[in-house]
């Protein structure tokens, strides 16, 4: 094989990930999560995440090398997430990667975490056991809907909707190595964060996304109407004269609306209808993100939309994204879940693209950037 063997390291949030790929072929995706340690706090505690990365980094690296049956000497280059993310958490992965690069003399690539989420879709395995009709959340299957149903040819000019506990962005990817543009993002909470906060208001456990997803299936999404952030003409503008937040998101007003709604029921001595609230809230988030992602694709000549991040597991999001992309003639790609959530394989996948396209390594002088654009 002539394709490069790349080791990827991810530590931007609560997942310690080490992935190994050969070109576009996934060999190993080893992930150790500290989520359990954050549950009782109702959110990721940066200091705990950093410590957990320290504990998990070497064992995860060892496990990945063993599973791939390779040694560090076989690796052609090392790639590591250098931002955006939690500063202390990023530091652990970056220091590990620099140490490995110095010790082995291998080239090192600093990787943008968001672009890596898009890079995950480049792996041959990302669409996995493709079952276009399968909308069940929680399985590890990928999803391809529309047009030829095949893989994205040269993987150029695609749109990406990234939704997780840490980010909510629409990207335009002209070329994964050098032309990635941020079209829109949240101006306050991330979508997953909104799920987690609302889950807490409804008395559900953290992380709240899966709990709301399940509860919403038993509720009526039309019973209570919640606000669609940044969707009014003042922010949207028109195609000719785009408003200041045409492709942006806001979820803090929605979260407050849910809190007020719960309070109203309690003030009247009634049990809040949690299933209807969960369904109405979920619909408000997903309505806006799918509508704006499709709009951004249409207005930027993009015919393929990629979904990434932990919220891509949401069953209603998969359904709505499928309906709306199909209606707009846009192809939808949802990588298998283990590649949608944070992992080292996506970092390695992007590293492999950079190596194959002859991009120069980053050297070892770079510093992690928690707010990397
Ligand atoms: O990508 P991820 O594992 O970690 C980062 O935040 O980077 O995403 C975790 C987020 C959490 O906020 C979680 O509540 C949300 O993804 N999530 C979901 C679902 N599964 C996970 N949100 C909605 N519906 C789901 N089924
Ligand atoms: Zn992420």
TrEMBL record:
Free-text remark on how the cofactor is bound: Binds 1 Fe(2+) ion per subunit.
Reactions that this protein is recorded to catalyse: L-threonylcarbamoyladenylate + adenosine(37) in tRNA = N(6)-L-threonylcarbamoyladenosine(37) in tRNA + AMP + H(+)
CDD domains: ASKHA_NBD_TsaD_bac (cd24133)
List of residues binding Fe cation: 113, 117, 342
Subcellular location: Cytoplasm
GO-annotated molecular function: iron ion binding; tRNA N(6)-L-threonylcarbamoyladenine synthase activity
Cofactors, names only: Fe(2+)
Domain Gcp-like: 26-126, 160-348
Source domain of life: Bacteria
Residues reported in the UniProt entry to bind substrate: 162-166, 196, 209, 213, 314
Group of enzyme by EC: transferase
Keywords annotated in UniProt: Acyltransferase, Cytoplasm, Iron, Metal-binding, Transferase, tRNA processing
GO biological process terms, semicolon-separated: tRNA threonylcarbamoyladenosine modification
Family to which the UniProt record says this protein belongs: Belongs to the KAE1 / TsaD family.
Annotated PANTHER family: TRNA N6-ADENOSINE THREONYLCARBAMOYLTRANSFERASE (PTHR11735), TRNA N6-ADENOSINE THREONYLCARBAMOYLTRANSFERASE, MITOCHONDRIAL (PTHR11735:SF6)
UniProt function note: Required for the formation of a threonylcarbamoyl group on adenosine at position 37 (t(6)A37) in tRNAs that read codons beginning with adenine. Is involved in the transfer of the threonylcarbamoyl moiety of threonylcarbamoyl-AMP (TC-AMP) to the N6 group of A37, together with TsaE and TsaB. TsaD likely plays a direct catalytic role in this reaction.
Protein name: tRNA N6-adenosine threonylcarbamoyltransferase
Organism: Arthrobacter terrae
């Amino acid at each position: 094989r002539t394709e490069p063997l790349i080791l990827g390291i991810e530590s931007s949030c609560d997942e310690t990930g080490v992935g190994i790929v050969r070109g576009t072929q996934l060999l190993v995706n080893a992930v150790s999560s500290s989520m359990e340690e954050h549950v009782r706090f109702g959110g990721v505690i940066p200091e705990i995440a950093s410590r957990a990365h320290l504990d998990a980094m070497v064992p995860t690296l060892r496990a990945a090398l063993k599973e791939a049956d390779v040694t560090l000497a076989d690796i052609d280059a090392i790639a590591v997430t250098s931002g955006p993310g939690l500063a202390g958490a990023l530091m652990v992965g970056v220091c590990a990667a620099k140490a490995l690069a110095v010790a082995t003399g291998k080239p090192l690539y600093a990787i943008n975490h968001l672009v890596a989420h898009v890079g995950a879709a480049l792996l041959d395995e990302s669409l996995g056991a493709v079952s276009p009709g399968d909308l069940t959340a929680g399985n590890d299957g990928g999803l391809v809907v529309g047009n030829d149903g095949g893989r994205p040819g040269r993987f150029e000019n695609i749109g990406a909707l990234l939704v997780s506990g840490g980010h909510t962005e629409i990207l335009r990817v002209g070329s994964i190595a050098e032309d990635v543009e941020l079209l829109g993002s949240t101006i306050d909470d991330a979508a997953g964060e909104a799920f987690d906060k609302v889950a807490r208001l409804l008395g559900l456990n953290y992380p709240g996304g899966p709990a709301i997803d399940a509860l919403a299936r038993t509720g009526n999404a039309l019973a209570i109407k919640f606000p669609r952030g940044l969707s009014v003409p003042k922010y949207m503008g028109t195609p000719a004269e785009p408003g200041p937040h045409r492709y942006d998101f806001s979820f803090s007003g929605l979260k407050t609306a849910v809190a007020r709604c719960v309070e109203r029921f309690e003030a009247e001595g009634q049990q809040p209808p949690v299933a209807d609230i969960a369904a109405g809230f979920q619909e408000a988030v997903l309505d806006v993100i799918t509508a704006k992602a499709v709009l951004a694709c249409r207005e930027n000549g993009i015919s393929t939309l990629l979904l990434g991040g932990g919220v891509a597991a949401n069953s209603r999001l998969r359904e709505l994204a499928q309906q709306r992309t199909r209606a707009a003639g846009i192809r939808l790609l949802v990588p298998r879940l283990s590649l949608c959530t944070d992992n080292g394989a996506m970092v390695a996948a992007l590293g492999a693209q950079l190596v194959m396209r002859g991009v120069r390594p980053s050297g070892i002088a770079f510093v992690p950037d928690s707010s990397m654009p």
